[in-house]
Amino acid sequence: MFRAKGQSGKHLCPPVYGYKKSDTDKNLWVIDEPAAEVVRKIFKLCIDGYGPVQIARILTEQGIPTPTAYALSQGRDNGRHNAKTYRWGANTIAHILERYEYCGHTVNFRTKMKSYKVHKIVYNPQDEWQIFENTQEPIITQQTFDLVQELRKNKRRPQKCEIVNPFAGMVYCADCGEKMYLSRRKNERPEQEHMRCSTYAKKQDKCTVHYIRTCVLNEIVLGELNKLLTMVRENEEDFIQTAMSNSVQRKSSELTKAKKALKQAEKRIAELDKLFTRLYEDNVLGRLSDERFTMMSAGYEDEQTKLKATVAELTTLIDGAEQKSSDVTAFLKVVHRYEHIETLTPEIMHELVDKIIVHEPDKSSGKRVQDIEIHFRFDVAVSTISVETGKYGKKVA
After folding, report:
1. 145/288 Cα distance (integer angstroms)
2. pTM of the predicted protein model
């Protein structure tokens, strides 16, 4: 069967930064190690909590050549003659962080010419891309790429302080479900730094005034992570069975809801098709005025368009969940890299923890008791701790 070049898995564009053409096969991309090392550095900095603007500044300050400068130094002309060869840009960093090619895949039909008359490049929707997996050696792992995409979905405000807080973008209010933001002032002592509900900070009537100091959170999370490492080290089989059960139950519950919603949406779309037919017949036979027909059909059409969009989203969700194998093995690979964690870093947090949920403190006993939920990645486990947060950070006489 005839297949267009772009549909056969062959690259339709020159190698992206980090790759070069093979000396023996012009259709094969091979890793260009000096550039690939910079790509790995960019992904690592993103996982560490830095955004594109900060990463661009770091690379510029370290004197690392931009992709254009590097190409020119290798005797290659990438066509970007107006690019600034001495300074990295945030857009360049963002594009690198979004490239599937770094996982070893080929992506074709990402763009197209507006028309044969207007030679303007426009971007295609992602569902029109052609992605061919495992066509070249990967520069980064799929797990690293997926983690970065997750982080990029929840973009965080850059902090004035250069130190990246390991909890940034990961802590949520139990009452309103919104993120808790870091409050850090120059004149405050380190033990006064805290996370507070973003909803309450904006509209005090929409949530309650609950917060947690980062020194408290740090001690609690560090303790729970080391407990988990010990558990895996001493009884890995039991942990795998429990984690698999948690993951399967959670996915099963989500799938059941999604399939039910999909069935209802498809049923309603079929009903609307019948209603369209009846409306048309009534209009033709004179039982329904043209004005009434236009109004009713427009309403039905709008509803059906929205339902079809919902069906597409649910189908994607169900297909992805059913095809995805258990992530417990991937989680264990990360866990095995650590024997004991002394200090929390953004990388450790994003590799092991999905989110942290902070509840409002209970002061009914005269003490400040607070519940904290730590949701580990891939739904392998949830740790719920009830602690007297007021005693943390106090000096012992």
Report:
1. 56
2. 0.60
